[in-house]
Amino acid sequence: MKQFLLDGQPVPFEDGQSILEAARQAGHYIPSLCWHKDFPAHGSCKLCIVKAAGRHVSACATPAKEGWEVESATPEMNGERRALLQMLFVEGNHFCPSCEKSGNCELQALGYEYEMLTSRFRHFYPDRPVDASHPDVLLDFNRCIFCELCVRASRDVDGKAVFALTGRGINKHLVVNAESGRLGDTDFSKDDLAARICPVGVILRKGPGFAVPIGERTYDGQSIREQKLKEEES
Amino acid sequence: MSPAPGSPPARKLRVPTTSLAGCFGCHMSFLDIDEHLFELVELIEFDRSPLTDIKEVGPCDIGLIEGGVCNAENVHVLRAFRRQCKTLIALGACAVNGGLPAQRNHLSLSECLREVYQFRPGIENGQIPNDPELPLPLDKVRPIHEVVRIDYFLPGCPPSGPAIWKFLTDLIAGRTPRLSDGLLHYD
Amino acid sequence: MSALPPNPAAPLQAILRRHGHDPSALLQILIEAQDIDGWLPAPALTQIAAALGLPRARVEGVAGFYSFLYDRPVGRYRVLFSDNITDRMLGNRALLDALCRKLWVEPDKVSEDGLVSIATTSCTGLCDQGPAMLINGRAIGQLNHRRINEIAELIRQQRPLDQWPAEYFHIDDNIRRRDALLQLDMLPGAALAAAVARGREGWLAEMQASNLRGRGGAGFATAVKWASARNAAGTRKVVVCNADEGEPGTFKDRVLLNTCADLVFEGMTLAAWAAGADSGFLYLRGEYRYLRPQLEAVLARRRTAGLLGKGILGEAGFDFDITIHLGAGAYVCGEETALLESLEGKRGTPRIRPPFPVTHGYLGRPTVVNNVETLAKTCLIALEGGAAFAATGTAQSAGTKLLSISGDCAAPGIYEYPFGVSIARILEDCGASDTQAVQVGGAAGICLAAYEFQRRIAYEDVPTAGAFMIFDGSRDLFEVARAFVHFFAHESCGFCTPCRVGTALLRGFMDKLNDGHGAKADLADIDWLDRLLKNASHCGLGSAAPNPVIDTLQKFRPAYERRLVSLDFEPAFDLDAALAEARQLTARDDPGAHLQTHEEDGR
Questions:
Q1: Structure confidence by residue, pLDDT tens digits, A77-120
Q2: Partner residue opposite A80 with nearest CB, options C62, C495, C536
């Protein structure tokens, strides 16, 4: 079987497999936010950035090549990942203590994984009003990281295309499929895949909040690295 | 262990602490290091702090700042800490990213003050306080690293007692502090 | 679910019909629909979505991507001042302010009577005759206070643009130096006849022999691209001419399209002949929309002459035609995969590569994307042969290069040189003196200081898509870099984290220095951001965005250092100003109601 070297360790792969997929399958963690095993690579968050044959590439969107030497868990790459996380934290309003997703949030868990102690840069504090118009689901745009998983899930799986991105650059933002701009005016349902796929705290079920006590949430007892590799095995 | 030749004689590190736009929750958590406090006071002595009642911060080694910067007085205190401390630490979520108080940042200050002092149900002829004794609020709440240079960050709402203990013992021992093994939390 | 939208009004229906209700024509439909009211009201988006069978959110997403599409009303006269650094050097800001004053309107707002709105836009490609503006999509150059006064009066009188003095809209070619391409006087069809006579394989062999490389900047071998598309599986192959000339300081494609459109279209047809393509698109940047009528006329003539359509030049099976697609104000669409997305009526977000356009391009078909100048050059190769072409220029850079020269020189305009020409020679030819720096290749290019002027224009030394902006000793290179950083932040598509946030952060740091809050620590942060943008960005926009800062920090560092107010740390904002709102609310002005901006002042 063909293989490449990830931080010096051989990783077997099949033709067409991305560096990230092959690595995870072989039990090596490369971080990601926008990547999802059931969807084609997206390549926007850049957390999976690695150095392959000396060049920076997205591990999720780059097909593995025989004999490549790939650097991932190096101080340099982890430093860049930490900076990318810091960017995501300053561009939105991420106040973990008051977020229901805290403890189950992938962005937060990656912050822990890469020992992000400060968001370092100037906070943008954007004004992004929440949308509580839907009976079952709340949208808190303050936490959006533009992974487009809800966009893709709603369009490709739910067959509804409830979400889309508009605007450009730092003004890019999520919109819903209604002239009113309100989720309550779309055909969105709490049973949609898009209602469950958000890696951060944008799309939240209404009803009892903070139900799972601190200490028992997804990333309280285990790191995102352990959790994701476990998911890979199952 | 005897000090190396030429190095200054061993002395306790002076540590001031304060809470700016914070809730003193981080200070309460500090007290959660419990019996470690006895070890700690062998190594440090407190300067200005809610624990000492010293009013002005003097020359110090390691300053701990809880809370973000929401008014003019916070700026004065923070600057004084920065001037006096060799090392300054942002302690807790509000100091690190503005925290709960910064959630007013998407509102204008006028809206906030008018709502609170003038238009709230039950208020008649309410006035926004203008006593010169009161510090004026800034238009936005800022994390402290946007106002002065900060050397270390210890996030958490609040950071746990063990996290604070680990951080301080690392620092006092001359190690770059690291929060490993589940000590790092943002909530 | 929303109720069904009412039927579109007749003008919108006509637009939808003309485009066959084709979802891939969404951008074109939006551009035309906007002509009805000058902006795109929410119900119009709903109607367009319903008529095309697209989710409304997707239509909103596309409409929100392009600078020239508006989701709120604009003035009946919509004035956009070109805001390239060269326009700024020629005083565009003072002219903008003057026009705003005369018409009682604030920048970026609409006048109360809805008559006029005035704003800035990225480089409009008139740097040789700036300061320039677009008014309702039509270009006016050589602005000065007299002309601004006249324009204010014409707007006040609500005179239709067609009745404005024609000389306003006259755009000069300013061709200052001609070489092989600009000297070519070709009868339409001559190059095509030569290529057809050689057969498809023979023609491709000539192209291979020519060593022609892409003139868009990247320098990929054109023949390799054509051959790859030809060999790619799939039918209905496509040739796209990239006329999204958005790189600040570049305007040679505008001149080629204005005076040599036949060469460009003939080049596209030559590409189609080689690659076996049957459809072609000219992706024309929205800023050049005023060229469209004359370009359509050229296409019509070529169809009549049998140079487009079915059985071109009587060759059975050689079917090819060209459609013009308009952009709508998005620099990133110059990136070829973003351009393809835009052609398909989507947001101009660069795709993941591989697959490359030559195998999976427009609507998944094998697609050749070439620059305007590249395509025009292929006519020379068809007429004179590949070997003759390869014999000119330098070893790795065959042929000539068109340069768009602007900035501090006596004779700005278009200069065609064989590759290998030195910077010093160009500066001499265009009458530049006391030159401090030259920005070659536009904002994304390279900033050369005087000690580098012996370097040469060539892929192996200083590659360029053609922009050549000159800055004399009176210019501040920090201001130049800051203008480019603003440009990139404005034009970032926002797809990937490093570019979306990084360009905004970089803009913040440059403004911090500019606003008198600079500290030494900022320079380290700028360095770090530069590296991250370069390494981690999804496409060339993000990785090129830090170039102006990297170059000027290296070569003109004092321009940054003299802006530092602290050698340590300084807040990015004015602390005393941050109390202004509270002072106003409390009517206080006592000493305690103020903060020293710099801590040192208070000591």
A1: 999 999 999 999 999 999 999 999 999 999 999 999 999 999 99
A2: C536
First-residue to last-residue Cα distance in chain B: 39
Report the pLDDT averaged over residues C73-84: 97
Beta-carbon contacts below 8 Å between B and C: 61
What is the CATH topology of the domain spanning C177-390? Rossmann fold (3.40.50)
- Who's near C483: CB < 8 A, 6+ residues apart? C83, C84, C85, C88
- The structural domains of chain A, ordered by start, are 3-73 (3.10.20.740), 83-206 (3.30.70.20)
pLDDT over 70, % of chain B: 95
DSSP-derived 3-state class of residue C133: strand
C166-170, Cβ contacts within 8 angstroms, sequence gap of 24 or more: C168/C140, C169/C138, C169/C139, C169/C140, C169/C290
Instruction: Report the complex ipTM.
Output: 0.98
CA torsion through residues C51, C52, C56, C61, sign: negative
The predicted-structure confidence for A5-18, as pLDDT tens digits, reads as follows 999 999 999 999 99
Q: How confident is the prediction for chain C on average, in pLDDT?
A: 96
Chain A residues whose CB is inside 8 A of the B88 CB are none
What residue segments make up the domains of chain C, in order of their start?
A: 10-63, 77-172, 177-390, 400-473, 478-561, 574-603
A91 contacts chain C (CB < 8 A) = yes
Interface with chain B: mutation pick from A82, A106, A118, highest number of B CBs within 10 Å: A118
Mutating which of A170, A182, A183, A186 best tests the C interface, going by the most C Cβ atoms within 10 A? A170
Nearest CB to A118 within list B96, B100, B187: B96
State whether CATH 3.40.30.10 applies to domain C77-172.
Answer: yes
Distance CA C276, CA C273 (A): 5
Check CB contact of C495 with chain A, cutoff 8 Å.
Answer: yes
Q: In the prediction, which pLDDT does B123 show?
A: 86
